[in-house]
Amino acid sequence: MKHVSCTCTVSPEEVDAGADMTLRVRVTGLRKGDAGGSHVSIRNRDGAELANAGLDPSDDGTYESTDIVLTAPREAGEYVYRAAVVAPAKGDRTRALASADVHFFVRPHESQLNVWDVPPTVVVGERFTFKVGVRCSAGCDLHGYGLSIVSHGRMRAGAAKLGRDIWPGTDALYFTEVEAEAPAAIGQHSFEVRTGEWESELPHVPGAVTLALRVVGPPDCEVTVEVVDRAQQTPIEGAVVVLHPYRATTDADGIAKLKVTKGRYDVMVSGPGYVSSSIATEVAADMITRAELDEEPPEELEYGY
């Protein structure tokens, strides 16, 4: 007499609380006489049936269930379900031919944070803005959830709530524009954006992301840089102009304006398809300067014989 046995795979083995997971059962040693009326029963630790599925024969003589989709428990932790192969018996009774434990872990949802549009420099004590996006690992609706902005000294520097809209091109990245106050000291600083204690039916792990800030003194000069194509004498739009640590991008007229403090700078200009340029400049007052860029030479093709 053949020995009936079964194995059960679960995907994923670590699943977000309340998310879907898929089970598939494989049975060996099942006699054809039992196969017709047999099915798989998935039961929890209390013996309650959560789902069942029929068995289909495979080419190698084994039997497999279709995908069994279950909703994971809503509390984090380790769980053990049981997959039982059940065959009909006399009357309305059934008999278990084989069984296997199904081990899996339920984890709280992760909060994945991103920041962008952070200014390259901020002025001491002034307010500035940037964008924050948060995505739940299970794609939860995060509209209205709170964020806090904390300075390096653990002082609260701002707060915001996520908006209703999702960032274009993403599946569940909720975002908002955050306003914060720059530190009162010149130099390198860091802020931390944190998720708050969110009230939700499902467990969420708090998340955080760090953003680096360069804080500068109040500017006292404005530098206007005109960037043109040397050969065509036409403006170059989208060129990047850097007077470290200040940065700007040229408009449709090839003009970039930067508010800086007095001092000596290397004016570095770069643009897609152009050779970068660097000019040393002393800034003592408002000034206008011009940068002419050469197109990059075409790449030479190498032919092999």
Which key terms come to mind for this protein?
single chain, 305 residues, mainly beta, Immunoglobulin-like, 9-stranded mixed sheet, 1 helix, 25 strands, 56% strand
- The chain-level mean pLDDT equals 89
CATH fold label of the largest domain: Immunoglobulin-like
Distance between the termini: 70 Å
Radius of gyration: 32 Å
* Overall spatial form: elongated
Main sheet specs = 9 strands, mixed
Number of domains: 3
In terms of DSSP E residues, the strand content is: over 45%
Task: Write a brief structural summary.
With 305 residues, the protein is mostly beta strands. The chain is 1% helix and 56% strand.
Can you describe what's shown?
- This protein is mainly beta and 305 residues long.
- It has three domains: 5-107, Immunoglobulins (Immunoglobulin-like), CATH 2.60.40; 110-216, Immunoglobulin-like (Sandwich), CATH 2.60.40.2550; 221-293, Carboxypeptidase-like, regulatory domain (Immunoglobulin-like, Sandwich), CATH 2.60.40.1120.
- The chain has one helix and 25 strands.
- It has one helix at residues 32-35; strands at 5-11, 14-16, 20-28, 39-43, 49-57, 63-65, 68-71, 77-88, 94-107, 109-116, 122-123, 127-136, 146-151, 156-161, 174-181, 187-195, 204-205, 208-216, 221-229, 240-243, 246-249, 255-260, 263-270, 277-283, 287-293.
- The strands form five sheets. Strands 1, 2, 3, 4, 5, 6, 7, 8 and 9 form a nine-stranded mixed β-sheet that branches.
- A hairpin with a 6-residue loop joins strand 23 (263-270) and strand 24 (277-283).
- The model has no long low-confidence stretch (mean pLDDT 89).
